[in-house]
Design goal:
With 464 residues, this protein is α/β, with parallel strands linked by helices. The protein has 12 helices and 22 strands. The radius of gyration is 25 Å and the shape is elongated. It starts with a strand and ends in a 9-residue tail after the last helix. The C terminus is likely disordered.
Length: 464
C-alpha cells in the first residue's frame, strides 16, 4: 500500500521538498493532492537521506505546505505504446489531444529507455531520401544517423522540419511501407503547433506519423520529458515492429533552456552561460538513442533542430550537439535574405556518414564524384564573386566568370527548390549534371572519365 506524506517543507518554483520519506527512488512518479482536492503529477529529481526533491509537472501555483498530500507511486514516468499511435497527436506527456479515442497499450515503457549495447550497434549504411537536393545530393542522410539542423532566430526551420517530415522516405522493395515519422515539437507557440498539425493533415503525412506537441506555456518538466516520450515511441516502432523511424525534434534550444531553469531552481553551480555542467551528458541521453541494432529489422534516424542564440555556432547548445552527432545542416541568414528556400548553406554543412549511404545500389554510381565536384565548384564560384566585388568583374578570367555564373545558378536552381518541391535522388543528380554544363569540361577534375562520357557527352559541353 502506498504511503501518504504530509511533510512538504518547501516549494521553490517547480520544485517541492518532502521530508521523512522512505524507500523513494530517483525518477519515481509522484501524485500530489493540494488542499482544494486538485491532483497534480511530479517526479523525484533528487533523494538525500529521508528528503526527496520533487519536480512538478503542472507548476506549484496554489500549493499550501500544510494541506498538501504526496504519494510516491514506485514507478518512473512511462508511455503507453501501441502501433495505433501512428496517425495520432499527443501532448508532451503522451496524452492524446486530437479528440481521438484513448490508446489501448500493448505495453508501458520507461521514457528514459535502456542503454544500447555498443557491440550490438550496426553501422549506418542505407540512404534516406528527404526530397531536398541540398541534403540528398551533398549532405546525405543515412538510416540510423543523427544529423542536426542548426538554425537561427527567425529562420524558417519550422518549414524545413515540416518538409522533411512530409517528404522523407526510404528506398527499397517494400521498405516504404515500414517507414514512420515521430515528430516532437518542444516549447513551441500555439500558432506553430497548429501549422504542423494542419500541414500533416492536409498532406496526408499524418497517416504515417506520431506527433508530440509541447507548447511554450507548458511546464518546464514537460519540455524535458517530450523528446524522451517521442524516442520511447520510436524505439517501440523500430525494435518491436521493425519499422524505419525518422525522429524530428524541434526545438532543442527550448529543451536546454528548460534544463537550465530546473538547474537554477535546484541551486546547482552553473556551467557555461548558466547551463548545467551536465548538459553534454544530458543531451547524449537523447541523441544516442538513434541507431540500428544487429538482428533487428528497424532503425531510428534523428534530426534534432536547434536555434543558435545570436547565430553563434560556438554557443554551448550547438557546440555540444556537434560533438555528439554526426555532422550538421546549417541554415543561412544570407541565403534567407536572398529569398532562397530552403536557405541551406551547403559549404559549412556536413554529414559525416554521407559516403556510407551513396553509390551504386544505394543512390547512383556517379553520386560521390558529382557531390565532390559541386562542392568544389560552388566554393570556387563564391570566391570568384568575392573577388569581383573587390577588383571588379573585368579582373576575372573567363574561367572565374564561369564559376561565378555556376555559383549563382547553383543557389537559384539547386538549393532554391521551395518547400513543396519533392525531388527524387535521380532528379537531384541530373540537376547537378545540368549545372556542371556551365563549367569548362577541363575544370571537372573530380569526376571520373567514364562518368563524364556517360552523363556529360561532348556535344553538351558548356563553356570552351
Amino acid at each position: 500500500m502506498l504511503k501518504e506524506y504530509r511533510t512538504v517543507s518547501e516549494v521553490v518554483g517547480p520544485l517541492m521538498m518532502v521530508e521523512g520519506v522512505e524507500g523513494v527512488k530517483y525518477e519515481e512518479l509522484v501524485d500530489i493532492e493540494i488542499q482544494t482536492g486538485e491532483k497534480r503529477r511530479g517526479r523525484v529529481l533528487e533523494v538525500d537521506g529521508d528528503r526527496a526533491m520533487v519536480q512538478l509537472f503542472e507548476g506549484s501555483t496554489g500549493i499550501n505546505l500544510k494541506g498538501t498530500k504526496v504519494r510516491f507511486l514506485g514507478r518512473p514516468l512511462e508511455l503507453a505504446v501501441s502501433e495505433d499511435m501512428i496517425g495520432r497527436v499527443f501532448d508532451g506527456l503522451g496524452r492524446p489531444i486530437d479528440d481521438g479515442p484513448k490508446i489501448i497499450p500493448e505495453e508501458r515503457r520507461d521514457i528514459n529507455g535502456v542503454p544500447m549495447n555498443p557491440v550490438a550497434r550496426d553501422y549506418p549504411s542505407e540512404f534516406i531520401q528527404t526530397g531536398i537536393s541540398a541534403i540528398d545530393g551533398l549532405n546525405t542522410l543515412v538510416r540510423g544517423q543523427k544529423l542536426p539542423i542548426f538554425s537561427g532566430s527567425g529562420l524558417p526551420h519550422s518549414e524545413v522540419a515540416a518538409q522533411i517530415a512530409r517528404q522523407a522516405r526510404v528506398i527499397g522493395d517494400g521498405e516504404g511501407d515500414r517507414f514512420a515519422v515521430v515528430f516532437a515539437a518542444i516549447g513551441i507557440t500555439f500558432e506553430e503547433a497548429q501549422f504542423f498539425i494542419d500541414d500533416f493533415n492536409k498532406t496526408g503525412s499524418i497517416n504515417r506519423a506520431v506527433l508530440f506537441m509541447n507548447l511554450a506555456n507548458d511546464p518546464a518538466v514537460e519540455r524535458i520529458a517530450t523528446p524522451r516520450m517521442a524516442l520511447t515511441c520510436a524505439e517501440y516502432l523500430a525494435y518491436e515492429k521493425d519499422m524505419h523511424v525518422l525522429v524530428i525534434l524541434t526545438d532543442m534550444t527550448n529543451y536546454a533552456e528548460a534544463l537550465r531553469e530546473t538547474s537554477a531552481a535546484r541551486k546547482e553551480v552553473p556551467g557555461r552561460r548558466g547551463y548545467p555542467g551536465y548538459l553534454y551528458t544530458d543531451l547524449s541521453t537523447i541523441y544516442e538513442r538513434a541507431g540500428r541494432i544487429r538482428g533487428r529489422g528497424g532503425s531510428i534516424t534523428q534530426i534534432p533542430i536547434l536555434t543558435m542564440p545570436e547565430d553563434d555556432i560556438t554557443h554551448p547548445i550547438p557546440d555540444l550537439t556537434g560533438y555528439i552527432t554526426e555532422g550538421q545542416i546549417i541554415l543561412s541568414r544570407e541565403l534567407y535574405r536572398k529569398g532562397i528556400a530552403p536557405p541551406i548553406d551547403v559549404l559549412p554543412s556536413l554529414s559525416r556518414l554521407k559516403d556510407e549511404g551513396i553509390g551504386e545500389g544505394k543512390t547512383r554510381e556517379d553520386h560521390a564524384d558529382t557531390m565532390n565536384q559541386l562542392f568544389a565548384a560552388y566554393a570556387s564560384g563564391k570566391e570568384a564573386r568575392e573577388l569581383a566585388v573587390i577588383l571588379g568583374e573585368a579582373a576575372l578570367s573567363d574561367t572565374d566568370k564561369a564559376f561565378a555564373k555556376f555559383s549563382d545558378a547553383f543557389e537559384e536552381q539547386y538549393v532554391n527548390q521551395g518547400y513543396t518541391n519533392n525531388r527524387s535522388i535521380t532528379d537531384t543528380l541530373n540537376l547537378g549534371w545540368d549545372l556542371l554544363k556551365i563549367l569548362p569540361r577541363v575544370e571537372l577534375k573530380r569526376i571520373r572519365d567514364e562518368y563524364l562520357e556517360k552523363y556529360l557527352p561532348l556535344e553538351t559541353e558548356g563553356v570552351e
